[in-house]
């Protein structure tokens, strides 16, 4: 990632500059540090969108470049969210509990504090003990490490089993769907130790921080923008050299790459695990902005949406993944948020909350059939045509 | 001349059909060999076995001076051991440039980490340029290989094989779909390559085989029917009956 790399890939620089400009504009227009044109909740929406763009870049790496249609990457995204959520919830509860017990005649013992936290956090699932997996929930450093390690390890084990058995194509997609479904079902159980279908909540409150949400939202927005910038840079660097050549080769003709002497399985495993780690980081930034995470977030459909965003944006192009995700997810929250005016077609009222999915599905089919290179492909054709007419 | 590859008593069945039937075959170091035979004789399957794509039901495949068994080794390991293969249908990476194709094939460490950190050295680029010249693509380095003509793709694939610098080269129907001039050039490339390594060429075109001017093995129904000079095998009555006479 040297100057020479940026010089050879000016589009990366353009992307980073646009992202910086966007971040600055949102900050200046925000309630927290700016003139207050953009509401705090919209800042959060934009910040979440940046996180979705980051996981979409990961999806583009694994699908658009390496040709592995994983329909399970939202599992890794969710796991990242859970890992940071544990710390947020634990520490905030500890602050509350300590505040409440401070007035008692005797200072509370660490055991009493722990018991009170357990009661607070797990009361909803009829328990009061902190499960074993919460052992490190008081350590931000460890939970941050787990944001990367837990998705990474799951991807490593899953990928090792699947790729070694040479599961490819649609079978692999189905297997990844099964993985995310299995994980979601497991987390739905109260005994999973992550509060079952209640999930983790109150994540927007940073423990020990008194700054208003209007400011906290911007911190997360900046962090999301930075993560997207770094993730984009890393991905662009990864696909620019021979590694990119090899994974695109695997996408186009796996057998040929093998006969060139490359262990295809190792490459698949490497890119699968790496993208899972990126997804974990994106999730860890997303859920504090959403405020809540529950197992429904990693339902199989979530990972399918991810593939749809990347397809619409144009796979095999990193900025395509970003454009597609930003465009579709923002449009989606507009349509499903009730802001879109309902249409009346031939006496029938089209409520967008219901019909948006139909529209999305049709656009996906249309893109697949008529514009397989998505929005990015269309933009490139436009740019190419302009160049043609100019010269 | 010492033996580089020894296939002995190999049998492969697909759903009960014996594609390779007790095949034995040897090739020496730096030998050029043509393999001919009717459609379905098992020529491609033979290459599949040597390169690890198909696992034989029985028999031995031994390679190198230490006579290591290739059976059970992964395709990648076999390729790393120095066996290169060109497919019947030209397979180059069409959305990548000629240079990227050749760089990918160039003999260098193949692990993900080594590849991630790899940056082509001036020597590597020079070698790629030299190879491109050899296969007549010297001025096409920056071109996406998908834009090349059919014959140029075949050459690029041969160039990729040479870039791998293998000890044994298996070439499946290299001249298919080529013009006479292209065929002649292909012959020259293969003969040149065989000066320093073993080359096995599968081909249907007798003129092409004649120009290779080497020992010929005739396969039929998964076994060797005849072996020797081209004139010798073409006079063989069995060969005339099953192959040439038709
Ligand atoms: N994977 C497979 N499954 C089933 N049958 C196969 C398989 N591979 C090859 N065969 C059969 O084995 C026989 C030998 O095929 P092979 O491709 O080796 O012939 P070939 O000598 O290369 O013929 P051609 O000159 O047409 O390329 C054929 O009858 C083919 O149908
Ligand atoms: Mg064949």
How would you describe what is shown here?
The complex is a heterodimer of chains A (391) and B (246). In chain A, 72% of the residues lie in helices and 3% in strands. Chain A is built from 15 helices and four strands. A two-stranded antiparallel ribbon of chain A has the order 1-2. In chain A, β3 (343-345) and β4 form a beta hairpin. In chain A, α3 (40-65) runs parallel beside α8, α4 (73-101) runs parallel beside α11 (264-290) and α6 (140-164) packs antiparallel against α11. The longest helix of chain A has 29 residues, at 73-101. The radius of gyration of chain A is 23 Å and the shape is globular. The model of chain A has no long low-confidence stretch (mean pLDDT 92). Chain B has 246 residues and is of the alpha/beta class. Chain B has a single domain (3-244), classed as P-loop containing nucleotide triphosphate hydrolases (Rossmann fold). In chain B, 37% of the residues lie in helices and 26% in strands. Chain B is built from ten helices and ten strands. A six-stranded mixed β-sheet of chain B has the order 6-7-8-3-9-10, with helices on both faces. The longest helix of chain B is centred in the middle third of the chain and has 15 residues, at 150-164. Chain A binds chain B through residues 238, 241-243, 245-246, 248-249, 252-253, 255-256, 258-264, 266-267, 270, and chain B through 51, 53, 74-76, 79-80, 84-85, 87, 91, 93-96, 100, 103-105, 110-112, 115-116, 118-120, 160, 164. Bound molecules: adenosine-5'-triphosphate and magnesium ion. Residues 43-44, 88, 172 of chain B line the site of magnesium ion. Chain B: Residues 5-246 form the ABC transporter domain. Chain B: Keywords: ATP-binding, Nucleotide-binding, Transport. Chain B: InterPro entries: ABC_AA/LPS_Transport (IPR051120), ABC_transporter-like_ATP-bd (IPR003439), ABC_transptr_urea_ATP-bd_UrtD (IPR017781), P-loop_NTPase (IPR027417). Chain B: It comes from Oceanicola granulosus (strain ATCC BAA-861 / DSM 15982 / KCTC 12143 / HTCC2516).
């Amino acid at each position: 990632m040297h100057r020479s790399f940026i010089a050879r890939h000016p589009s990366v620089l353009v992307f980073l500059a646009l992202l910086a400009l966007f971040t600055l504009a949102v900050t200046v227009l925000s309630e927290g540090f700016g003139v207050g044109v953009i509401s705090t909740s919209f800042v959060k929406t934009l910040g979440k969108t940046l996180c979705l763009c980051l996981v979409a870049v990961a999806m583009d790496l694994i699908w658009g470049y390496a040709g592995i249609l994983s329909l399970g990457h939202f599992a890794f995204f969710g796991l990242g969210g859970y890992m940071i959520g544990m710390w947020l919830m634990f520490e905030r509860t500890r602050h509350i509990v300590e505040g409440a017990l401070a007035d008692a005649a005797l200072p509370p013992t660490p055991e009493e504090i722990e018991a009170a936290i357990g009661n607070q956090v797990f009361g909803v699932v009829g328990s009061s003990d902190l499960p074993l997996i919460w052992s490190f929930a008081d350590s931000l450093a460890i939970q941050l490490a787990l944001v990367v390690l837990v998705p990474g390890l799951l991807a490593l084990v899953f990928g090792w089993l699947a790729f070694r058995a040479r599961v490819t194509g649609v079978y692999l997609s189905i297997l990844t769907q099964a993985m995310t479904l299995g994980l979601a079902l497991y987390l739905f159980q109260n005994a999973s130790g992550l509060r079952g279908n209640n999930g983790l909540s109150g994540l927007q409150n940073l423990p020990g921080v008194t700054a208003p949400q209007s400011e906290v939202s911007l911190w997360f927005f900046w962090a999301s923008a930075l993560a997207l910038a770094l993730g984009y840079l890393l991905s662009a660097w990864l696909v620019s050299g021979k590694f990119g050549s090899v994974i695109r080769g695997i996408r186009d003709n796996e057998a040929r790459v093998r006969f060139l002497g490359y262990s295809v399985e190792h490459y698949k495993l490497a890119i699968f695990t790496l993208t899972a780690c990126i997804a974990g980081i994106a999730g860890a930034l997303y859920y504090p902005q959403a405020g809540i995470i529950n197992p429904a977030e990693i339902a199989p459909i979530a990972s399918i949406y991810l593939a749809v965003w990347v397809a619409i944006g144009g796979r095999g192009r990193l900025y395509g993944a970003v454009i597609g995700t930003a465009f579709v997810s923002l449009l989606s929250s507009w349509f499903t948020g009730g802001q879109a005016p309902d249409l009346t077609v031939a006496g029938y009222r089209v409520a967008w909350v219901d019909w948006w999915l139909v529209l999305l599905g049709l656009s996906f089919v249309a893109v697949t059939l008529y514009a397989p290179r998505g929005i990015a492909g269309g933009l490139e054709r436009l740019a190419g045509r302009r160049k043609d007419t100019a010269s | 001349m010492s033996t580089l590859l020894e296939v002995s008593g190999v049998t492969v069945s697909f759903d009960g059909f014996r594609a390779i039937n007790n095949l034995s075959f040897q090739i020496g170091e730096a030998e050029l060999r043509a393999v001919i035979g009717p459609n379905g004789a098992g020529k491609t399957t033979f290459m599949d076995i040597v390169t690890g794509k198909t696992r034989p039901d029985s028999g031995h495949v031994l390679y190198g001076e230490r006579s290591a068994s290739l059976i059970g080794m992964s395709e990648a390991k076999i390729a790393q051991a120095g066996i290169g293969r060109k497919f019947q249908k030209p397979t180059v990476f069409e959305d990548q440039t000629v240079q990227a194709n050749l760089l990918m094939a160039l003999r260098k460490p193949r692990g993900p980490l080594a590849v991630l950190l790899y940056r082509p050295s001036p020597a590597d680029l020079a070698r790629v340029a030299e190879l491109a010249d050899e296969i007549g693509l010297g001025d096409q380095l920056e071109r996406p290989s998908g834009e090349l003509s059919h014959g140029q793709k075949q050459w690029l694939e041969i160039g990729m094989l040479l870039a791998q610098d293998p000890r044994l080269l298996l070439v499946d129907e290299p001249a298919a779909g080529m013009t006479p001039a292209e065929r002649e050039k292909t012959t020259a490339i293969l003969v040149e390559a065989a000066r320093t390594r073993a080359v096995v060429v599968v081909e249907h075109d007798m003129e092409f085989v004649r120009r290779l001017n080497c020992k010929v093995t005739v396969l039929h129904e998964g076994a060797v029917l005849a072996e020797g000079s081209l004139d010798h095998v073409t006079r063989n009555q069995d060969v005339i009956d099953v192959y040439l006479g038709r």
